[in-house]
């Protein structure tokens, strides 16, 4: 099984789509399992519910002892406050700019490189491939300080560039696309070459359209990790106007006497976009995460 | 730091031998241009920092980067004798030892559950996976709030008065709980995908042979999941060793009670950005890199041995 990226089956398509599914009768086993699933879901989701309810309390009610789940006085104060006084809209825009840029660059650069490694020949390819694979073990967590001084040397501390570019060289994504392109039948390309198409044309009109699912997987994965990235933006900027959501919430909102209702509202704001996106694109995202993970298998 | 896709791939990187069969075939040359943009970024932000870190680790550089002197192996010598470094390494290792088995078992159980419930699959998947969609810092803040001794829900629900975040014996445990809740969804999805990839005919055949549910699980499901379990464990080990975000957020950006949650990454950043000892911090980073690389290589070596044994 090793070396091949197993096809990721999310669920049998036909059941969800055709509408003519056969309702299986409830067996005892199914009832027990479903109840168990519901109980587990309640446990997993209760922290989120707690965050939501806290955000709808007043600051004084939020810190009452003993705590209670539901607000006595439902209020949108905290939500109003974070939009009126804080930089949260700024951070939201920054997060969006950074994530979109990173995802775009990674897709373009990664697809080109993956294809280059999979399907073209050039001197030193094997050696380069080895170096890139070695780079897989390097992350900002491992080499944060030298990476920072490098970016500092380039004069990119406290800039969008400094936040974006270091996130744009993920060897992992190149490797995933490389594996995918290897699986594209060569005959398709060779036929086009014989018809006189150039390398670029083949890449753009034949290979890329075939690889949409893989590109989607890589794009989604990159977007999630970039949106949620804390460590690198934390290192590279302490300018509140440049911070991203996770970063701003963690540093600025935590700094002068935590206002819990506001902090929870801010946290939900940071998580909400991905949750909404997940609800709508669940199939693609699940396939994406599973695919990027399993590609390493 | 959660599971980075980088590590996913490092584990199987050895399959990357270039095919030379079509060398010189028309249209298959001059591929350098395809690879060039990536290589530029890779060289600037991966290779160069690594080389630079290696160089800095032999100097007494400060954050400004000026007036650095070559000091040979002094930084490494100091690091190996630095109790703080060993403590930080110990915390990260202990954290890893706690998180990895728990997450592997939990993810497997959740996947089995979601796989076997016939109705509303999308709903279970959504519920189990949702925490992973939050930024690490938000997860950290949320659990800091939940573990708050007076106003938090954990003590209230359990009816206890444990000072989770301010007691040396509980603080790291609290970070572990937060991490489990936040990241189990990722491994859960990997397991779920793997479960769905097991051919149904295996189960059918076993059923014909009269195997009961337990036998089917022990003789089909578990062996078929062996690869994915190896992957999940390896990914979690590498990610857990690099833990940072949720721990610092839960401890208000401090090292926790008596430094008991100071992780390796945090220690490196403190030396680099708080004490401004970039040379020393680089040496520690290099040590960390070697450690991470050793783990990844060990995994590759294990895989290869297993394959040679014909599994």
TrEMBL record, chain A:
It is found in: Cell membrane. The chain crosses the membrane at residues 31-53, 91-115, 127-148, 160-181, 202-224, 260-281. The keyword Signal does not apply. It is a multi-pass membrane protein. SUPFAM superfamilies: MetI-like. PROSITE patterns: ABC_TM1. Keywords: Cell membrane, Membrane, Transmembrane, Transmembrane helix, Transport. Belongs to the binding-protein-dependent transport system permease family. This is Sugar ABC transporter permease. It comes from Streptomyces ruber. The lineage of its organism: Bacteria, Bacillati, Actinomycetota, Actinomycetes, Kitasatosporales.
From TrEMBL, chain B:
It is found in: Cell membrane. It is a multi-pass membrane protein. Gene3D superfamilies: MetI-like. One of its GO terms (cellular component) is plasma membrane. CDD domains: TM_PBP2 (cd06261). Residues 89-299 form the ABC transmembrane type-1 domain. The keyword Amino-acid biosynthesis does not apply. The keyword Signal does not apply. Its main location: membrane. One of its GO terms (biological process) is transmembrane transport. The chain crosses the membrane at residues 33-51, 93-114, 126-146, 170-193, 224-244, 278-302. Keywords: Cell membrane, Membrane, Transmembrane, Transmembrane helix, Transport. It comes from the Bacteria. Belongs to the binding-protein-dependent transport system permease family. This is Sugar ABC transporter permease. It comes from Streptomyces ruber.
């Amino acid at each position: 099984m090793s070396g091949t990226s197993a096809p990721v089956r999310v669920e049998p398509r036909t059941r969800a789509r055709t509408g003519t599914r056969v309702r299986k009768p409830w067996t005892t086993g199914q009832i027990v399992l479903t109840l168990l699933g519901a109980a587990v879901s309640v446990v997993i989701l209760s922290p989120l519910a707690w965050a939501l309810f806290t955000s709808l309390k007043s600051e004084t009610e939020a810190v009452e002892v003993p705590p209670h789940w539901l607000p006595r006085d439902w209020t949108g104060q905290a939500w109003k406050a974070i939009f009126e006084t804080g930089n949260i809209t700024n951070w939201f825009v920054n997060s969006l700019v950074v994530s979109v840029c990173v995802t775009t660059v990674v897709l373009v650069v990664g697809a080109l490189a993956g294809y280059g490694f999979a399907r073209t020949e050039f001197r030193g390819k094997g050696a380069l491939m080895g170096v890139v694979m070695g780079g897989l073990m390097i992350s900002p967590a491992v080499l944060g300080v030298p990476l920072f001084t490098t970016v500092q040397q380039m004069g990119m501390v406290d800039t969008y560039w400094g936040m974006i570019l270091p996130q744009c060289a993920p060897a992992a994504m190149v490797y995933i696309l490389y594996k995918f392109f290897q699986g594209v039948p060569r005959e398709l390309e060779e036929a086009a070459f014989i018809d006189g198409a150039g390398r670029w044309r083949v890449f753009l009109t034949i290979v890329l359209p075939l690889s949409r699912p893989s590109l989607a997987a890589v794009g989604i994965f990159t977007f999630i990790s970039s949106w949620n990235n804390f460590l690198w933006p934390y290192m590279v900027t302490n300018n509140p106007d440049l911070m991203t959501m996770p970063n701003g919430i963690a540093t600025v909102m935590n700094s002068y006497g935590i206002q819990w209702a506001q902090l929870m509202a801010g946290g939900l704001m940071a998580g909400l976009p991905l949750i909404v996106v997940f609800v709508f694109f669940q199939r693609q995202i699940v396939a994406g995460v599973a695919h990027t993970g399993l590609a390493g298998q | 730091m959660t599971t980075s896709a980088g590590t996913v791939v490092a584990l199987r990187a050895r399959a990357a031998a270039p095919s030379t069969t079509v060398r010189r075939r028309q249209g298959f040359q001059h591929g350098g241009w395809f690879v060039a943009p990536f290589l530029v970024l890779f060289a600037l932000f991966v290779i160069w920092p690594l080389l630079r870190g290696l160089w800095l680790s032999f100097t007494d550089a400060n954050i400004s980067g000026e007036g650095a002197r070559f000091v040979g192996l002094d930084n490494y010598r100091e690091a190996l004798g630095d109790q703080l470094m060993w403590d930080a390494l110990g915390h990260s290792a202990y954290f890893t030892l706690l998180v990895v088995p728990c997450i592997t078992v939990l993810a497997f159980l959740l996947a089995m559950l979601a796989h076997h419930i016939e109705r509303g699959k999308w709903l279970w998947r959504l519920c189990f996976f949702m925490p992973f969609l939050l930024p690490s810092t938000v997860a950290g803040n949320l659990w800091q709030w939940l573990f708050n001794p007076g106003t938090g829900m954990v003590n209230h629900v359990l009816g206890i008065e444990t000072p989770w975040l301010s007691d040396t014996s509980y603080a790291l445990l609290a970070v572990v709980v937060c991490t489990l809740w936040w990241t189990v969804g990722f491994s859960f999805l990997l397991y779920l995908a793997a479960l769905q990839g097991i051919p149904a005919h295996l189960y059918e055949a076993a059923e014909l042979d009269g195997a009961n549910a337990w036998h089917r699980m022990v003789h089909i499901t578990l062996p078929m999941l062996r690869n994915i379990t190896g992957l999940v464990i390896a990914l979690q080990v590498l990610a857990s060793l690099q833990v940072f975000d949720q721990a610092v957020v839960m401890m208000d950006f401090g090292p926790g009670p008596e430094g008991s949650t100071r992780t390796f990454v945090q220690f490196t950043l403190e030396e680099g950005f708080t004490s401004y000892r970039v040379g020393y911090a680089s040496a520690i980073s290099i040590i960390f890199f070697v450690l991470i690389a050793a783990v990844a290589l060990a995994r590759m070596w294990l895989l290869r041995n297993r394959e040679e044994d014909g599994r």
